[in-house]
Amino acid sequence: MSTLKSVNLDGAIRRVTVPDIRARKRRNGGEPLVCLTAYTVITARLLDVHTDLLLVGDSLGMVLYGLDTTVGVTLDMMIAHGQAVMRGAKRSCVIVDMPFGSYQESPAVAFRNAARILKEVGCAGVKIEGGAEMAETVSFLTQRGIPVLGHVGLMPQSVNTAGGFKTRGRDAQDANRIVEDAKAVATAGAFGLVVEGVMEPVARRITDDVEIPTIGIGGSPACDGQILVTEDMAGLFTDFKPKFVKRYMDLGSGIAEAARQYAEDVKSGTFPGPDHCFGMPKEDDHGGE
């Protein structure tokens, strides 16, 4: 006789899956994909109800750790933050960036590291940067059960060879190369494609030419979805503001103002007060007229 208790799943939250994302090509109808980055439990909880996909991006190196680029991010960092996001996200499809150096050496090395991410994080898949040169790796991973989100155009992990964060696709040769990269990654089996920092007509052309959803960041409104770094979108990261970012709030200034008021209260002795202490009598507890 089984000792397992029956579980009522009527109110269970259904998580968005990779096939769900793959089916969201806008020419098939439906709304654009809503995607944001997340690095912590609390952020994941706040965003989860609003997003289809949460990306644990290696941008955390710059946003959380103050690095100049994403190149210094490690696999252990990505796994730790991925685990945090999975604890907070119950609905969104969670994808984790593979950091620089964790997949470029060979398809076998990429598989070993990607498998570790999926095992230790429990996420739905990984994202890797690269075009035609990474098609073999994308195919190797997808054929072995690891869903891959591609990334073409401006690729932050290649900032050293590119000479900085420069918009791509400004001339016909570069534009054609990016389109061919996108096609190669899609053909290799990626379920979706981030298109970053390219001229708008290039992102529009990619979206028309590939059968998988495109997710734009500095791309085009024609993309099948959009993604921003949450700290950019909410005004928490203010070191610089890319042209493609729209700030919906200024949380950074709000936190700074809250800290100013807190410091003022501590210095003046008005915090903590009786309401914030255990067992401290209030003034009116002493009686009065």
What does this 3D model show about the protein?
This protein has about 290 residues and is an alpha/beta fold. It has two domains: about 20-250, TIM Barrel; about 255-285, no CATH class. Helix content is about 35%, strand content about 10%. The protein contains eleven helices and eight strands. The chain has helices at about 20, 40-45, 60-65, 75-90, 105-120, 135-140, 160, 170-190, 200-210, 230-235, 250-270, and strands spanning about 35, 55, 95, 125, 150-155, 190-195, 215, 225-230. It has an eight-stranded parallel β-barrel with strand order 1-2-3-4-5-6-7-8, surrounded by five helices. Helix 5 (about 105-120) links the parallel strand 3 (about 95) and strand 4 (about 125). Helix 2 (about 40-45) crosses helix 4 (about 75-90) and helix 5 (about 105-120) crosses helix 6. It is elongated, with a radius of gyration of 23 Å. About 40% of the residues are buried.
Helix and strand topology:
Layout: H1 18-22, E1 33-37, H2 41-47, E2 53-56, H3 60-63, H4 75-88, E3 93-97, H5 107-121, E4 125-127, H6 135-142, E5 148-153, H7 159-162, H8 172-188, E6 192-196, H9 200-209, E7 214-217, E8 225-228, H10 230-233, H11 251-268
Parallel strand pairs: 1-2, 1-8, 2-3, 3-4, 4-5, 5-6, 6-7, 7-8
Helix pairs in contact: 2-4, 4-5, 5-6, 6-8, 8-9
Question: Characteristics of this structure?
Answer:
single chain; 289 residues; alpha/beta; TIM Barrel; 2 domains; eight-stranded parallel beta barrel; 11 helices; 8 strands; 12% strand; disordered N terminus
